[in-house]
Amino acid sequence: MTPFDYHRPETLAEAFRIAGEIPGARYVAGGTDVLVRIRSGRERPNALISLGRIDTLARLELGSVTRIGARATIGQVLDHPELTSAYPLLAQAARPFGSTQVRNLATVGGNLCNASPAADMAPVLLALDARVEIEGPQGTREVPLDAFFKGPGQTDLAPREVLTTIVLEPPGPDARSCFLRKSRVGMDIALTSVAAHLQLADDRLTRVRIAAGAVAPCPLRLRAVEDLLEGRTVEPGLLDEAARLAASEIAPITDIRASANYRRRLTRTLVRRAVAAACEESR
Amino acid sequence: MSRECTLDVNGSLTTLQVAPSARLIDVLRDNLGLTGTKEGCGNGECGSCTVLLEGRPVNACLLIALEVEGRAITTIEGLLGPGGKLSPVQQAFVEAGGIQCGFCTPGMIMSATALLEANPAPTDAEIRDALVGNLCRCTGYTQIIESVRAAAVRLGTGDRPEAPR
Ligand SMILES: Cc1cc2nc3c(=O)[nH]c(=O)nc-3n(C[C@H](O)[C@H](O)[C@H](O)COP(=O)(O)OP(=O)(O)OC[C@H]3O[C@@H](n4cnc5c(N)ncnc54)[C@H](O)[C@@H]3O)c2cc1C
Ligand code: FES
Ligand code: FES
After folding, report:
1. Which ligand minimizes its atom distance to the CA of B40?
2. Does the CB of A102 have a partner CB in chain B at under 8 Å?
3. Secondary structure tally for chain A: helices H, strands E
4. Does domain B3-78 have CATH number 3.10.20.30?
5. Domain boundary assignment for chain B
6. Which domain holds residue A274?
7. In sequence order, what are the beta bridge partners of A144?
8. Residue A246 φ/ψ, nearest 5 degrees
9. How large is the ipTM?
10. N or C: which end of chain B has fewer CB within 10 A?
């Protein structure tokens, strides 16, 4: 591993100052992505700036809105009964995430900032209409998660900015949801994943959100599918149409894990099953 | 370029000079002589480097030593009782044959110890789930699962009958 310096600021202001003084420094939260890349030589930062001592980043609050600190670990999300009962999608994505050891280190913010197309928290947070709060030397701003991902490994973050908080609206009175993820074996990243979140009242679907992972350069919302389902009553013909439409909205690639064609077929199946399962889920 | 760092390992504090990029596994093995913790993959995948950080299992190959300064770390050596007596989980692995070459064993035992602390009577599925991040190339896992089950009994908490083989 190429040696690097290591900084442990206790406030965001200090983190911004260090980031300004050391071009080439990188932030690190759980390190489960960054350290693996450094070890493989794909990344050679001269310094890491740890977010581990900035305690304001680790808050988890449920209220009129829910605020998940970027440095909350996947394990902390899973161990938070109020959070997972309000948003079962979070638990469904967190449970198969890596291993116990990885979940105790990996952070929600790191998962989003790393911007892997296959990041597991991305589809569920997209389906929950999450917004992210970003703080930088110039101040604070908020963006919809949907506008945060720019490409594989690329986000809306400016060089010294830090993602501080993930903000969620209350789930809604008639909320139903389902996250489905297909991987080859345990501990493998998703071949394809689909998250559905919607309101179901009087047999009608409203506020439909469908998001998919590992099928395009970024995790993405399937807006045509959402529009198709909005206001409708679920029946098999509609699900078939949704599945077909989903396959046309994505741009999967072939890699060592699966072919583009397989990912497309998987997306069709997972969209159909996720919407059906969400509707059947009893709350 | 090195930095002073005080680590809290197995209940004792040690102040030492570490390179800023030194990982916890490097410091445990090379500076503190605690070679029970093994490095397999170095990438978070095999779990042979598992230690407990404030009671929770983590990969020591994915932690920078300076990051965990002052936080309680437990390694396999820290499980021994007075006079070097094996912990109930360690003893169960010996008796149930959960060890062959032994390379994965310290990591397995750390994960199993944390599991039984949180869930004193796990089902086999829960045991397997807790050990997803620990790979073994020798045993085929069956005897490891049996060891954890036996450890639960040993700890006086497992009251389930043996699952059929
Ligand atoms: C064995 C193993 C299994 C894994 N399994 C899964 C899996 O099942 N699903 C999955 O999605 N991922 C998985 N991962 C990948 C990884 O664990 C996750 O992406 C994790 O959430 C990253 O979080 P982190 O805190 O460790 O990120 P880090 O490695 O600390 O950071 C990742 C990137 O984000 C930046 N960053 C982090 N936090 C912030 C912030 N608050 N503001 C600005 N920038 C920030 C860093 O600079 C870096 O570029 C796995 C990794 C390993 C090693
Ligand atoms: S050496 Fe740490 S997980 Fe393999
Ligand atoms: S006993 Fe040899 S790797 Fe598990």
Report:
1. 2
2. yes
3. 11, 14
4. yes
5. 3-78, 82-156
6. 175-280
7. A131
8. -55, -45
9. 0.94
10. C
